Amino acid sequence: MKSEKPIVNKEFYYSYPRPEMLRYIDTGVKNILEFGCADGSFAAKVKEKFDCNYIGVEPLSKYANIARTRLNYVYEITAEEFISSSEGMENKYDVVIFNDVLEHLIDPYTLLKDLRMLLTQGGKVVASIPNFLNFQNIYSILRDKDFKYSEHGILDKTHLRFFTKRSIERLFNESGYNIEIIEGINCNIKSKKFKALNLITNGYLDEFKFMQFAIVAVKK
To answer: At what angle are helices 108-115 and 165-174 packed, to 10 degrees?
Structure first.
């Protein structure tokens, strides 16, 4: 089955503005926090759309320095360090963003639980998480009989966690959130054979089409 080729330039990760995630940000937000803001490309798009105070957390100096030209403030520390620091306790946020970040954390459950104290009443987490069940990923594992890490993509060697739609739902439910939206994004399987097979199986393969899931969750 033919599929689209994934992005292979890892530097692209740090500068891609993620336009598909913009629609998950509610209008009227005033204070936003983004973990793993990279060079601030996504933040710049958000700030073009909303009049908001935008704080970033980015541990890599190379990208944090660029992000500082686009955001109101950038902390050059890890997500875990931010949550445990006094700086992290200073403000509350309407939206906290994780664009392909939670899978890099040792314990995303604890971080999401602790994060609730930083959210305003009705505050939301907006996240994108890679989909392990993506057909291209599963096909490669079955074909090669190998779980081979790579420099990019779903099996990025810096990923510490792997998720499916169901395990994403568990992650947020067990961490004290109600999920408002969870849906597949960035479909990379468009062949007629796949569509026919999905039709025959009554939509069983729907989740296999997407490279990521987008999530909007509000604290309980």
So the answer is: 50
